[in-house]
Amino acid sequence: MPNEEFIPIEIHAIPATIQATVKETRPAAKKAAAAIRARKPRRIFMVGNGTSLYSSMAATYTGRTLAKSTDDPFVLAVPAGDFRHYRPSLDEHDVIVGISASGEFRDVVALFEELHGKCLCVGITHIPGSTLTRISDELLISAGGPSRVPVMTKTYASTLTAAHLLLLECFSASQTLFDDLEKSAERAEAAIKTADDLVPGIVTELKGFEHAFFFGAGSAYSAALESALKMKEMSMLHAEGSETWEYASGPATIVDEKYFCVALYTGNPKDEDTANSIKHSRQWEARVIEIGPQSVAGDWHIPVAAPLFEPFSTLSLIPPAALLAYRMARSRGHTPDTPKWRERYYAQGMKHILGK
Fold first, then answer.
1. Predicted TM-score of the model (pTM)
2. Which of 37, 109, 244, 297 holds its CA 20 to 30 A away from the CA of 128?
């Protein structure tokens, strides 16, 4: 099969990847969580860059939602490079969770090396034997098998699932939430099947566009950032991700018929504000796509079932957004399995990109 077909293969593998990670990685998550609780942590910093940063952001909603008192640790996502060079004072009560699908991202690796023995460092990676596996105090290796492409799809799902597992264990979540996390696989599979049918028709009308905005509230904000990144990486068009209320006060000022906008819904009542913004975007003559359990704007809707626990929504929202990005790329003559920008990464010394 030609290389350009690997990305859709990996997107279709996301449900099995989620299931495998829940089953195979939970023991390591339980062990790491016990080590974290033993520290009586004040703060849990989740660090990564690019896709790993957005999975960190998505996972923090689990920590925020499950925290019940001021005695529970505060969970915050920070770009790895920024945290490395401008980090706050840390002590033995702080925990750093570093996410790097490759296990080689230089800022995460350097940060763990610099903090060795000073605070607990928990690594989450997709690659056994990578540098991160050798320097982490505690380690979660996500499942789903190796990736053949530089644009992360199933690795995003697997590392995010592992991060959710870690925080569910840290906050002693009920088995109901672990079951709902595993059911993310079913929701993702249904979303992928629907997107397979709907996306080709959407792309036919949108392939000439050069600008896109993605937005959502709560955990859908992190999904918007990741979706925009996938659109940039694959189709090479300008795409931005925004939080719903930030979209209303910023990007909305320039939305017109030259843009398409994507609203991401989680099933939370606060989706009403996202719905209002997408209705306005349609009134401003942008073409609009809605991904999630509802549709209000009357353009295109890719249905995605809402989870019981909102922070898990990103796992099923991203696959149809990734398929949209891939089909847009192919319609525009790009082969995202072997993107030209990969050489730009190598030129900057970032040799960790998969699919080399």
1. 0.94
2. 37
Between the alpha carbon of residue 10 and those of residues 88, 154, 283, the distances in Å are 38, 6, 36
Give the model confidence (pLDDT) of 237-246 as tens digits: 999 999 999 9
Q: What DSSP string runs through 287-354? A: EEEEEES---SSSEEEE-PPPSSGGGGHHHHHHHHHHHHHHHHHHTT--TTS-TTHHHHHHTT-TT-S
Q: Which domains does the chain have, with CATH numbers?
A: 3-173 (3.40.50.10490), 185-331 (3.40.50.10490)
List CB contacts of 187: < 8 A, sequence separation 6 or more: 304, 305, 307, 315, 316
3-state secondary structure of 182: helix
Strand (E) or helix (H) holding 131: helix 131-135
All residues at 6 or more sequence positions from 245 whose CB lies less than 8 Å from its CB, including other chains: 217, 273
Contact 101, 155 (CB under 8 A): yes
Mean pLDDT for 122-128 is: 96
Q: Which letter, b or e, does each residue of 282-298 get, where b requires 16 or more Cβ atoms within 10 Å of its Cβ?
A: beeebbbbbbbbbbbbe
